[in-house]
Design brief:
The protein has 267 residues and is an alpha+beta fold. It is built from nine helices and ten strands. Helices cover 39% and strands 19% of the residues. The strands form three sheets. A five-stranded antiparallel sheet has the order 1-2-3-5-4, with helices on both faces. A three-stranded antiparallel sheet has the order 6-8-9, covered by helices on one side. Strands 7-10 form a two-stranded antiparallel sheet.
């Protein structure tokens, strides 16, 4: 994971790309640029004659295009969890995906937040969704550099792998999960283990965060020694990312992963 490339505006896209998008979405009448996200050069809410759509894209030759293609492949299998993919455009040297626009806000993970119940509901739905064959990345690949036992993370559950609050949209009655580019296959408890440092970073204590995760069967069934191995590997991984990219949000997650590791060691 690295911070994304320079974010550009709709008007900076090649004319051919914009024309191809409008052929699918309708004439664009207004654009709201979105700054959240890491893997897209362009991310904008487009007002069109056919309605609103969220568009994200990168140059087709960029290595980040593989992540967007991964997201496009997975989208049909996460209906009801993610905004539907409306169209895929490759033109003018760019790859652009257009998703149904969801009127919502980013989740609040603070203790006592009502969003936590909606997060739990969408997580439960995710855990009940079979992992499709198009998900070829495996969780153990992600940590093989940081532990000599990455096989403890292996499994057949579908793991979103980046449930930061910016990737969870809250509406009046539910939550949606966006940015499925890094989805992988692994043990069901790994998703929850990746989420715990996020919760700690938003004010939950380690014990409180683990208690929240314990509402899910995969967490309750996980072997403590496997979780301990994961925690050590995840802390090392975040330390490396923070050393390479010392952005405040990355340093925060590295610090909370370390805090969780130290707490588990001191229990």
């Amino acid at each position: 994971m690295t911070p994304g490339p320079r974010r550009i505006g709709w008007s900076e896209l090649p004319r051919e790309t914009r024309a191809a998008v409008e052929a699918h979405a309708g004439s664009v009448t207004e654009v709201d640029r979105v700054e959240m996200g890491e893997r897209s050069d362009i991310a904008s809410v487009l007002d069109t004659r056919a309605g609103r759509v969220f568009a994200k894209g990168v140059p087709a030759a960029d290595r980040q295009a593989a992540w967007l293609e991964n997201e496009a492949r997975i989208n049909p299998y996460v209906a009801g969890l993610a905004p539907p993919l409306m169209w895929r455009v490759q033109a003018g040297g760019w790859l652009v995906l257009g998703f149904e626009y969801i009127e919502g806000r980013h989740a609040v993970y603070a203790p006592g937040s009502a969003d936590m119940a909606k997060l739990a509901a969408v997580l439960r739905s995710l855990q009940e969704t079979p992992c499709p064959d198009v998900v070829y990345r495996r969780a153990e690949w992600r940590w093989k550099e940081f532990t000599d036992r990455p096989e403890t993370m292996a499994g057949e559950a579908m793991i979103h792998a980046d449930l930061n609050p910016g990737n969870v949209l809250i509406t009046e009655d539910r939550a949606y999960v966006v940015d499925w580019a890094g989805t992988c296959r692994g043990a069901g408890w790994v998703e929850l283990a990746m989420l715990i440092p996020r919760l700690i970073g938003h004010g939950h204590g380690p014990a409180e965060a683990e208690e929240w995760a314990a509402q899910f069967a995969p967490w309750r069934d996980a072997a403590a020694e496997d979780v301990d191995l994961f925690v050590a590997a995840e802390s090392s991984r975040w330390d490396k990312v923070a050393a390479d990219w010392p952005y405040p949000r990355i340093v925060l997650t590295a610090n909370t992963a370390r805090q969780w590791k130290e707490w588990r060691r001191g229990r």
